[in-house]
Design a protein that fits this description.
homodimer, alpha/beta, 5 strands, 48% helix, X-over_junc_endoDNase_RuvC (chains A, B), EC 3.1.21.10 (chains A, B), DNA-binding (chains A, B), DNA damage (chains A, B), magnesium (chains A, B)
């Protein structure tokens, strides 16, 4: 199972691809790629959204995941910042739909629980555990890329749990 | 000048095309087309956003406007509804950018002022005046289509004012 995680943001939109490789005795998580789309501040919103769309669809085509996982947002920030995040999030979901891929959403609490073991983990703990789970020397940078990998790991964890394959 | 107005919504996204036709003595507003994209409640968000994107880009290609006008939103609703509206709004702006069209945004107050003459007008007054300004027997339905025409009229009014062509 190959999962493409997206961590939407108005400055950086992180992305990360993780594959669950089934071995003879056990399965392991393999990091395929990760990065972040940096939105150009000089551009206006429609051009920035177009950049997100073009880059994300190119990445989805390049890495051929089976599913796209994104963070579900229910934070208490003000309506204006929610609207701005919604712009990017809408375009991210559209990119997946345009590539014919299903989209799954996970609450921040579920993502932290899946990666660290509890929902109140600090950002640094998430990054530390992403590196550890994927057998990387250090967490990918920027942090948005590591967060996107965490979202992908969360989906793999949940999908496997649903199949009864994880303890 | 041909303007494509979009009234974003999570159930209906209205659209309307208005042209300013310059005559020998005076200019007049001509309604080209209007309608609303009804989002299918049976579909999930990514598929709905894909529907908005596909229909909007087809309309933009069909009607070849010079500019896309959308409503700027600074309402005080909760963050969750702002996020949902942001999804549609982001995809609408992307559609314009993907067609190489500039996007202009107008506050609800400016739209009402341009169409009715003051910013506190009721929804029905806006619809009445849209029909009157475009010489239509009645306002187009659903109301979202009329609202989209109002946004297009607002831009024409502002662009002409900037040129010093309107009193």
């Amino acid at each position: 199972m190959r999962v493409f995680g997206i961590d939407c943001g108005t400055e950086y939109t992180g992305w990360g691809v993780v594959e669950m490789v089934d071995g003879p005795r056990e399965s392991r998580l393999e990091p395929i790629a990760a990065g972040a789309i940096k939105l150009d501040r000089k551009h206006r919103t429609p051009q920035r959204l177009h950049q997100v769309y073009v880059e994300l669809t190119a990445l989805l085509e390049a890495y051929s995941p089976e599913v796209v996982a994104i963070e579900d947002v229910f934070f208490a920030a003000n309506a204006k910042s929610a609207l701005k995040l919604g712009h990017v999030r809408g375009v991210a979901m559209l990119s997946a739909a345009a590539c014919g891929l299903p989209v799954v959403e996970y609450a921040p609490l579920s993502i932290k629980s899946a990666v660290v073991g509890h929902g109140l983990a600090a950002k640094e703990q998430v990054q530390f555990m992403v590196a550890r789970l994927l057998d990387l020397e250090r967490a990918p940078e920027p942090a948005d890329a590591a967060d996107a990998l965490a979202i992908a790991i969360c989906h793999i964890h949940n999908a496997r749990s649903a199949q009864g394959l994880l303890r």
